[in-house]
Amino acid sequence: MSRSESPRAVEPAIAPWGPPRAAYVHVPFCRHRCGYCDFTLIAGRDDLIDRYLDALALEIERELPGPVEVDTLFFGGGTPSHLSPDQLARLFGIVGSRISLVPEGECSIEANPLDLDNERLAALVQAGVNRVSIGVQSFQPGELRLLERDHTGIEARDAVRRVRRAIPNVGVDLIFGTPGQSLADWSASLEACLALEPAHVSTYGLTFEKGTSFWSRRERGALRQSPEDLEREMYELAMEQLPAAGVPQYEISNFARPGFECRHNETYWDARSCWAFGPGAASYLGGVRRQNHRSTTTWIARTLTREVAPPALVEELSPEDRAREAAMLGLRRTRGIDSAAFERRFGAAPRSLAGAAFERLVSAGWLEESSGWLRLTREGRCVADTVLMEFLSPL
Ligand code: SF4
Asked: Which residue among 33, 116, 148 is best mutated to probe the pocket of ligand 1, counting the most ligand atoms within 8 A of its Cβ?
């Protein structure tokens, strides 16, 4: 069946995105831009932090005329922990003036190992942060240098232990596929991470994004990308080593001890609404996605002058495209999609969205259906981009 023949999603009676119960705050500051990173951030401009906080207060007031309550609140970056303890206290005060977390809510922050001193930890605890995601990336000295990280493996270990004494829900982010990294090196980083008994582990394959220094270094032959089959072996190793140590996989890139899955990110994979504030942040409200300007300086200037400028991106998906996107996001989770619930919510059966490709993906052993759930197989997770693309735009 071609895309034009595939069943059209019809708008269901109840809005599939639901009322917003999550909020994201983007904090775009870092000490230094790592060579592989293309996130929305500004490095070495701490002089802008106070004006950023002024602008954030204005944006939150403008977007939220009254107080709201959420189940999850996420401070991402950049590096939110780069703010001083006083600036962190101001950040939490600004957000808390309009957004309150339910008593059992999840409040996450992304952090750099070197920032997690006692003063900042006290500011996090005081503000009710109950989940810290630490950007460790590797425990191997050579890899850390190549990735241009500013911490050592020992400092990362210390940070995880110190944070956990104050905030037990600690996640560790790791990168695989660093140039020159062997399978044994990756296994050693996984082991070092598991020895710290984190609640959550995220593993990302290194990507070379246009505009980064890693991209130009690769173009001129100064950096060699890891072979694809080695990267796949590394991913498969993570899928063995982490669950075997009691940290099962629950999403393509994420593993967690039971009960410690990131609830905020589940909002995205479940295609539910979310408020978002700060440069480059993307909200999803009333079925419309809006992204703020990605330049920190432009976002600050426009917000402070109350300039009514159009967002960098406004996207209102058709019911069919909304269903396609929700299928693609839902399949990222290892449990997959409850097909009947999905059809009630999005007006289309998930299998119908892949059109003619569906049977081919099942025959290839990349997709499976059982007891009404559709999911990627373990093999399918290794080629997830290819499989998920068929749901987004089948040929
Ligand atoms: S610390 Fe994180 S967000 Fe900042 S530049 Fe490095 S990778 Fe990017």
From this structure: 33
